[in-house]
Design a protein that fits this description.
0% strand
């Protein structure tokens, strides 16, 4: 496959989506404010449950392996927000095209169809990055937690999880092409991930069978790495097994996403469900 068949369309779609978001002030404000406001609810809830003298921390520390509930909750919610925005902007990019009435035009262009999703995912990742930095900086300034970790380790962890997320988003994109509506799937998925991956509370509070299943989700390994690197100041070498696991499952998910997307593309072509077929 020639690079111009997929590389240039990916960059073009990414640039288009970034321009659309930056054109509307309300969208920019939302991207900047959400990483600050969203974790506040959980932060103050944790502060309230800890008690005025911290008498409630012992049970949390036993379950989460840390007494730093602020860092635990804030980092978990920022990761949840990162995944959530990518699900909406990347996974549902084709659905957004349907709403705008541009889907059929984009689908019939002489370029790789998968580039439509990859470009939207690239845009959402770029647009996600700066708000997350703002969120982390805000909570550092108010003293909720202190970031003294190796920033290379944090960046490496984010890059490491991307193949898994992209494969995940391709499956959602395939649902959008085939069913024309996948918004409810995103609502269900983000709720399930927040529970099974221990993003907003310790995984140990779940029944053993459920928590055991959650431990095998790559996103769980990712958030544990982020927390360990920032809260416990651990190095990447301490998470060698998790790095291998995330890498292998990420590659498998990416290949699976490409396969499902390609299968769906052939299916809608054979049934004539999309313009141009």
């Amino acid at each position: 496959m020639e690079p111009r068949y997929w590389f240039r369309p990916v960059l073009s779609v990414a640039l288009r989506d970034i321009k659309i978001v930056l054109r509307y002030k309300s969208a920019v404000v939302a991207l900047l404010v959400w990483p600050v406001i969203f974790p506040l609810t959980f932060y103050f809830m944790g502060k309230g449950l800890a008690g005025t003298t911290g008498q409630g921390l012992s049970n949390f520390e036993r379950l989460a392996q840390t007494g730093d509930y602020a860092s635990f909750l804030i980092l978990g919610n920022l990761v949840w927000l990162f995944v959530n925005i990518n699900l909406w902007m990347g996974g549902l990019s084709l659905q957004r095209d349907r709403i705008l009435g541009t889907f059929d035009t984009h689908w019939t262009m002489p370029a790789s169809k998968i580039s439509l999703v990859l470009g939207a995912t690239l845009a959402s990742t770029v647009l996600n990055f700066f708000p997350l930095v703002i969120g982390i900086s805000f909570y550092s300034l108010i003293g909720a937690f202190k970031v003294s970790a190796n920033y290379f380790s944090i960046l490496f962890s984010i890059i490491l999880i991307m193949p898994f997320l992209i494969g995940f988003l391709l499956i959602f994109a395939a649902l959008t092409v085939r069913l024309r509506q996948a918004g409810m799937s995103v609502h269900i998925t983000r709720a399930v991930l927040s529970i099974l991956c221990g993003l907003q509370f310790p995984l140990a509070v779940l029944p053993d069978s459920v928590s055991s299943f959650g431990k095998h989700i790559p996103l769980t390994h990712f958030v544990n790495m982020i927390r360990g690197i920032i809260i416990h100041k651990q190095s990447l070498f301490a998470y060698r097994d998790s790095i291998i696991y995330i890498t292998v499952t990420g590659i498998l998910m990416l290949l699976g996403g490409v396969f499902v997307f390609g299968l769906t593309k052939r299916n809608v072509k054979s049934k004539g469900l999309v313009a141009g077929y």
